[in-house]
Amino acid sequence: MTDAEEAFASLESYTSETALDIIVNQDGATVDQDALLMYNTIVRDDPPHILVEVEDMGLRYFHSYTVDNVVYFHDGAGWMEDISGYGPDELSYTEYDNLWDILERNERHFTVTPSANTVEVSYFGQDAQIYNAFRSLFELDFYGVDTASVENDVRYLFNGDALLEEVFYEAKAANHSTNEEVILRIHIRYDDLNEAGDLETPEGMEDLL
Fold it and tell me: Which domain of life is it from (predicted)?
């Protein structure tokens, strides 16, 4: 983990792609499913510089933009400055920093498995602390179940340079009162590590900056 800590400290910029799925099965059949795709470009300045885009029903659109610790939202028609007090930490759940923090705080639970080109750090079990870490980060929850019984399946994949390339997380829980099984799946891919460069100002923001 020492190499990964050093690589994380030297990380300057990256992009990420997040797929989030919530699946509800009842009596063996899928009765509901929600999906979300989110794309981030992050420059790790102090404060960070972040552009967030979201894809829904095949349409990709701007969501938010952060520069100099000021957050701007896109409402579908244009940009506006946020006045509710949001900061960069509330906008980019899938920042490398946040996923690294979960791993670092729960390191004792994980198993390290090196291979020729990657290192996998993984955990499978019913630890409520790990579930609560991902639940809090993504502001998601299971209702009507004992959170201590939630099955967590977590995998972090690091490349040959000890930089994080992918995170897989699945939480599975049963609600016996409704005979439902609820599955939360998150897949994050990091790319352009140290090569994302400077963010260009999105079109239509010129008058706000």
Answer: Bacteria
